[in-house]
Structures are given as structure tokens and as C-alpha cells.
Amino acid sequence: MPESTPAPEDLVAYYDTGVEVDRLTHGVGALEFQRTKEIITRFLHADATVADVGGGVGRYAEWLASHGHVVDLVEPVPLHVERARERAGEPPRFGVHLADARSLPFPDDSMDVVLLLGPLYHLGDAHDRARAVREALRVCRSGGLVFAAAISRFAPLFDAIRRGRIAEARLIANVRAEMQTGRRVPLARRTSPFPDAYFHLPEELEQELAAAGLDVEGVFGVEGPGGWLNDLEWNEPGVKESLLGIARDAETDPHLISISAHLLGVGRKPMR
Q1: Has this prediction a pTM greater than 0.85?
Q2: What is the share, in percent, of the chain residues with pLDDT greater than 70?
Q3: Residue 131 is assigned to a structural domain of this protein
Q4: What pLDDT digit, counting tens, does each position of 183-215 carry?
Q5: Structural domains counted in the chain
Q6: Distance CA 70, CA 143 (A)
Q7: Domain interval for residue 117
Q8: Burial class of residue 235, CB neighbours in 10 A (0-12, 13-18, 19+)
Q9: Surface-to-core class of residue 147, CB atoms within 10 Å of its CB (0-12 exposed, 13-18 middle, 19+ buried)
């Protein structure tokens, strides 16, 4: 196992505010959660050992454990680790580790599945993202699966439009710069506390997974166009079914995939 790597300070500071604690339980977060689970379920076999890397407060780990999988969550934010341990219960239903995606605390070939549902978009440098994917491959068994989430290149623009901030010159200048390079603007230029990040094009995500040695099964748009609705009432009659159907229709359409806020790449470690 490689030496431990500290998490970026701006990432820890941002998530230590608690912004992620309930994000997946309502509105567009609930749509993201449901769709991500749906895509994972298409590929996941029964009774898998899973590393949930960047697993936050443990909502995916809890879901997987409830379906009989053996899960170990890895998370660099102390607040999230504390909340995940509370969620795991006593005796714990899943393991929880304070660690970073670039240096996983697991032996080689020890997992059937690795989830990277946050690390790649919070590693702005390409070499750090490549290191995280290589770590996922290291701990994954031959034939195992890696699920890697990314934020779409155009998500900052759609978010500015959704929030009615299109006339804010400084913000829009930042958004345009981020669309050109994919990289979050430097700290001194930012108009929000969201930390350093990289925003992917679908083909970039596919290329990064393939370059690390994965056989890419597909890259999918997660939320679809409905993810940009204001005041999304997830539990209103008919809303959930419509949003999920629209997202499925758009998930691999080359004209629509990038409209999703999140992308999910699925790769398989080659058999040896």
C-alpha cells in the first residue's frame, strides 16, 4: 500500500461545514442518488466486497450493506467519517476509514468493486486523478468493477442559469474559464466556497479510465435534463417516475449526456 496522502485543505474545509450531510435526501440530490444506485445495480453482482472511496457520510455504503454486500468506506473529511461511523452503527454494518483515494488502506486484489463517487472531480490535477484510478485498480480483483463519478464540464454554466446568476459578470467569467479548461478557477477568483475541482467531458472521463488500464463499459449521464429544475419536489405524484424516465432516455445520447450535472463511468479490471 502506498504512503498516506493528505486531503486538500479547501476540500476538508468545505465539507466540514456539513453541506454534504443531507444532500442526497431531497431535491436534485435525491435524483442523483436514485440514478447512481440504478446504474450501479445494472452491473453489480450479489455478495460483492466493495470499497466506497470518498463515501461521504455513508449513504451508498448503507444501501450496499443492506443488500448483503461487504463494504468498507474510505473518506478524507473527519466530519463525514464521524457521521459514517454513526450510520454504520454498533456492531458496524460497514467499515469506515479516514484515508484518501490516492492511498487506499487495502491490500492488492482485495475488492470486487470500487466506487469513486467523488474523488475524481475533487482532484484538479490529472496526475492525482490517474493515481486515484490506479489505486482503485490495485485493490480491485481481476474482472472487478470500478464506478467513477465526474462533474460535467457544463455543470457550472447550467447551475448559474438555474440560480438566476447569469448577469453576475465575475461569476460568468469564471464559468467561461472553467468551460474552456475544465479546471476550477484559482481560489482568489472564486465566488463560492466550492473547492478545487475538475469538470469532465464524457470522452475525457472514458479516456482517463482507459488510460489507467480499465476496460470501459460505458459513461452515463446521471440526472438528465430534469436535474436542473428549481425547487424539485421529488416525492410529488408522478415527478419521480418522469424524472427517472427522462434521465434514462438521455444517459448515453451524445447530444444530451453532458447536460447531466454528474457523469458515471463504469470500467472493469481486465482478467489476468
Answers
A1: yes
A2: 99
A3: yes
A4: 999 999 999 999 999 999 999 999 999 999 999
A5: 1
A6: 18
A7: 9-152+200-268
A8: exposed
A9: buried
